[in-house]
Amino acid sequence: MIVLIGGEKGGTGKTTLATNLAQMRAARGHDVLLVDTDKQESASSWASLRAEEGIDPTITAVQKLGKNITRDLLDLAKRYDDLVIDAGGRDSFELRAALVATEQIFIPVQASQFDVWTLGNMAELVEQAQVLNPRLRAFVVLNRASPNPSVSEAKEAESLLDDFPALTFCGVTLRDRIAFRKASSAGQGVEELHPKDPKAIDEITQLYEIVFNEK
Ligand SMILES: Nc1ncnc2c1ncn2[C@@H]1O[C@H](COP(=O)(O)OP(=O)(O)OP(=O)(O)O)[C@@H](O)[C@H]1O
Ligand SMILES: [Mg+2]
């Protein structure tokens, strides 16, 4: 399966979600490749750090930039069970090209910063890609929501997304938790971090199950 984590807005959690999903997939015995289409190389650096620290399982990461990326992704998809693609911010060539190769994009949206303009742009990009790639489905995942469980940003997201038929809320909300930051900076997935943060693990597991249809 090819899973794209993308979006035009910077700092919404794309790399955090991509690295966690790749780690979880690998830990469950799948041959996964983490594809970094971001010039900042954050996902690749996370994988290198992981290798340096000797954390098992090793996650193979490659950086892919430039014109041939759609063909490269389709080629790589034949050699791995799964590709998890971290498509950096901005309306990049790589994001557009990856949208043509993938079946699903998950777009992290920072709960406190609903940005209708960016969502509208993403919806347009998705619709354009669907002309060439009708299987493409686009989901929004809420990230960095208030850790206070009484605050439900999900309702707001759902009503906002009514205006964009190309985008569906996937139903998962990840809250702002230090564990996500700590795990990323240690080259880990949040389920590998000690001490464990059961709430963070529960949230990322919900996302994992939706992405890989494992409910
Ligand atoms: N749920 C979360 N809780 C706490 N911190 C988070 C969460 N998600 C992401 N972060 C932190 O927010 C910052 C931005 O996240 P990340 O690098 O994943 O975003 P990005 O979309 O990949 O950014 P860019 O557009 O620069 O590639 C990082 O410091 C990350 O650790
Ligand atoms: Mg990133």
From TrEMBL:
Residue ranges constituting the CobQ/CobB/MinD/ParA nucleotide binding domain according to the UniProt record: 4-188
Name of protein: Chromosome partitioning protein
InterPro entries in alphabetical order: CobQ/CobB/MinD/ParA_Nub-bd_dom, DNA_Partitioning_ATPase, P-loop_NTPase
SUPFAM superfamilies assigned: P-loop containing nucleoside triphosphate hydrolases (SSF52540)
A Pfam match: CbiA
